[in-house]
Each structure stands twice: as C-alpha cells, then as structure tokens.
Amino acid sequence: MKLPCMTAPRTLVGFVLAAVFFSGGCIFAPPTYGRRGVVTPNDTQYRLYLDECRRRQAVLDRACRDWGEPAAIQIGSSGGYFVWEGRKEWVYLKSFKALIRTDAPPRLLARHANPNLPPDDRQLRAAGRNASATPGLQLVFPPSSSQLRAAGRNASATAAQSPVKPLYSVENFERLADNQFAYAFRLKLNPEANVDISSFATIREEMRRSIIADYSATYGAKMGDTRVDFSKFALSDGVIEGWAEVMRIGVKSLSYDDRTHKGVIAVSIGAHSFEDARNWIRKNIETLARDKNVALTTGHIPSEAHFYLHNERVVDGNVLEIEFETE
C-alpha cells in the first residue's frame, strides 16, 4: 500500500506553492487589502498595500525613497502597478519580481501619472450619453490625483460637491541665493478656513515636502536622504514666517545588540555644514534609527526604548558613526 503523500507528490507540491504565494502578502492582493482596482493616498488599502510591498521589494522601496510615494496604485489579481505623477518611470510587481518600466502605464493609471491628459474616448462617449439623457448637463470628468491632494488631507467624502477652503496662501517661497541649503517662506493663513493647533503640524509637513521636492529636483538629491530642519516657524498676526535648512543625510548601516542594549548607527553627510548636520543627527537619532526604510543588520530595537548617546567618530571623511544605548 502506498502512503497518501507518495501517491500525489505533484498535488502536494502545488498545494505548498499555492500556500506560499497566497500567504505571501502584497503581490497577490489578499482580502486584507480589500477590493482590487485603483487606489490613491486617500484610500486605507493604499497605505496597507504600499507598506507591505515596500517591505518585500527593494526596487519599489528605493523608488519611493527617490521619488516619493506613488500617485496611485492598481492592485491586480496577479500583480501590482505603481505610478508617480509627472514621471515616465513606473514600477511593475509580479510574483516575486519588481521592475522599473518606462513604457505606457496601465490605462487606468494613465491620468494619475499625467493629470494633463485629455479625456479618453470612452469618457467622452459616456459623458455624451449622460448629457443627452439630461438636457443642460455639464460634462465633468473625474479629478486627477493631484487635484484630489490639492483639496487637502482634511477633505471629507463630500469634497467633490463642497470645495475645501485652503488653510493658507503662499506669499513668498524661495531658495536663498547665497545659501543653496536654506529656504525662506511666508504664508498667510486663510481667515475663512478652520485652522486649529493640528493645522500647524499639517502646514509644517506640507512645507517640508515642498522643500524636499524642490531641492531634489534642483540638485538631483535622493528624496529619502534629504532632511529639513526648521530653524524658524513662527506665527504672528495670521502670518507664518519660516526659515529652513536642507541636509543630505543617509543611514548607511545600523546594528543593535539585544543582549547589551547597545548599537551603532553610521550616517553619511552630504555637502553641508558638517557641524550643523552632526547636531541634527544627535537630536534626531531616534527618528533615524526607527526609519522604516532603514534595515537593522542585527537585533531589534524595542518600540518603547529611550536612546542615550555615547562615543562618536568620523570615518571616510563624511560618515559619522554614533554609539548609542537604549533603556
């Protein structure tokens, strides 16, 4: 008599492979991520799917660090498609492979990659049918991802019907001529907008992203290695005035010993005042060590740990190594 496992080895192998594929997470869009289709940053499943895919695929993670997060993602039954607004490059994930492509992205993502595209024939025909069925109806096409983001993160589900009042208007935003690492800006708060304490964090983060995008586009710096330090961010009479400095700081390595609670982080510093960057790194050591894009070579840092700094040294001219301990 043959054992059951010997009678159908191919069936067993197929079952094991299927279990691996469908429990693997991001690529096959399991029910965790909800419906398949196009998702944007306003969708909950966008964040779940993107974070999992970045964790599993280094190609996608590098693209997000260099270009920022995708404007839209198409979750398919056997792959994922990621596009960035204004970029020709896009990322295709299939099975356990990740590729950067430069051909035309999937049709459903074309308008997210290029919001200025005219409506396609199918949209025109559908809009025309609706207009003929309802006399006097104005043709309105779906907003692009950039238009949705411009409406603000606090936009409700009724944003399409009720325009969101912007929190502020930009009166001045400039990179200083005598200092390529410094930016100055002046923002006027909108008295009609609902501005509260949490709004300042939103405004600050929007300015941070704007500065990083401008600096990266101008100097070709990786967005993931570009940091912003606000030396001034002050409100007076409805006006926010600020001064920010850009630093190119990238974590080269991070190791941690679970037994001794000690670790070492090595950080490269780009062209900038080394002392200013050093001070920023020491103040933000925990932020750098907990960056989800930084891989620990050994150990695991507890989420509730407090950091204490010890010795530091400079190697290779522009790499700062700092010893730390957690408690």
Question: What is the multimeric organization of the chains shown?
Answer: single chain
> SS-based structural class?
alpha+beta
Looking at the structure, what is the overall shape?
globular
Largest sheet: 7 strands, antiparallel
- Gyration radius, in Å: 24 Å
Number of strands: 12
Strand content: 25-35%
Helix content: 25-40%
Summed up, the helix count is 10
Mean pLDDT: 76
Termini distance?
61 Å
Low-confidence stretches: 1-9, 11-31, 121-127, 130-142, 155-162
Series of H and E elements: HHEHHEEEEHHHEEHEEEHHEE
Explain what you see.
A hairpin with a 3-residue loop joins strand 2 (72-75) and strand 3. The chain is 31% helix and 28% strand. Strands 6, 7, 8, 9, 10, 11 and 12 form a seven-stranded antiparallel beta sheet that branches. It has 327 residues and is of the alpha+beta class. Residues 1-9, 11-31, 121-127, 130-142 and 155-162 have low confidence and may be disordered.
Write the layout of secondary structure elements.
Layout: H1 4-7, H2 9-23, E1 37-39, H3 44-56, H4 58-67, E2 72-75, E3 79-83, E4 90-94, E5 97-101, H5 110-113, H6 121-133, H7 145-150, E6 168-175, E7 182-189, H8 197-219, E8 226-236, E9 239-257, E10 262-269, H9 274-283, H10 285-289, E11 307-315, E12 319-326
Antiparallel strand pairs: 1-2, 2-3, 3-4, 4-5, 6-7, 7-9, 8-9, 9-10, 10-12, 11-12
Helix pairs in contact: 3-4
